[in-house]
Amino acid sequence: MTVVEIEANLQRQRVTLDLQSIVESAAEFLEDAPAREIIRWAAATFGDRLCLTSSMSDALLIDLVSRVKPGVDVLFIDTGYHFAETIGTRDAVRQVYDVNVIDIQPSRTVAEQDRDLGPRLFGRNPDLCCYLRKVEPLNRALEPYLAWISGIRRDESPTRTNTKVVEWDAKRQMVKVNPIARWTQEEVDNYIADNGVLINPLHYDNYPSIGCGPCTRQVAPGEDPRSGRWAGLGKIECGIHL
């Protein structure tokens, strides 16, 4: 290893330690802060090295963040399996909000994946399919940033119960900001209604949680809102937030 490479590694280690220190203090003093204040802190701390991700289930997070940081980068993973309504919501977001939507593509098209790994991988090995079409593309897209904002909430699933409003994303070695982590579904619904937020029209057709078309079904009244995701496959997360 050259002297330049050694110095570069040391610099990366110093940056990582600094970011982890920021997370520890921010997680504590922002725990009870309003979502907009959490976003203001993130925007002031990370500037243009901050982005947010959106599955285009709704534009709540986009609405919140764009009011604080107009022009923010919004990463949308175009898996190749999205409902037409999801693509339409993405296109509408581009027209309505002051954001920079960036389409993230998997390394293989659906046809190439079918050729290399066989058709309907989502049914045979959903974890691998999610990794190839969601997790790996996002990991690649997040590399230029120091922090990213997600819309996950504690009440969505057992795996998200301990989500902090600011946390260290050890897998990606960056800061993860979850400004609506404490929100309930009622608070989400009220914000959408009060602010005229764009939502995916599939919500009106009993799809409370929307993912890729082949792995998302309608949910009956009284069912868990996320029960329509990977139904019958023993899976509740795509892997992005694990």
Automatic annotation (TrEMBL):
Provenance organism? Planotetraspora kaengkrachanensis
Write the record's keywords in alphabetical order, separated by commas. Answer: Cytoplasm, Iron, Iron-sulfur, Metal-binding, Oxidoreductase
Where it sits in the cell: the answer is: Cytoplasm
Q: Where is the signal peptide?
A: none
Task: Give the catalytic activity.
Answer: [thioredoxin]-disulfide + sulfite + AMP + 2 H(+) = adenosine 5'-phosphosulfate + [thioredoxin]-dithiol
By sequence similarity, the record places it as follows: Belongs to the PAPS reductase family. CysH subfamily.
From its record, what is one biological process in GO terms?
A: sulfate assimilation, phosphoadenylyl sulfate reduction by phosphoadenylyl-sulfate reductase (thioredoxin)
User: What do the Gene Ontology cellular component annotations say?
Assistant: cytoplasm
**Biochemical pathway:** Sulfur metabolism; hydrogen sulfide biosynthesis; sulfite from sulfate
Q: What is this protein called?
A: Adenosine 5'-phosphosulfate reductase
> EC number(s) in its UniProt entry?
1.8.4.10
What cofactor is needed?
A: [4Fe-4S] cluster
Function noted in UniProt = Catalyzes the formation of sulfite from adenosine 5'-phosphosulfate (APS) using thioredoxin as an electron donor.
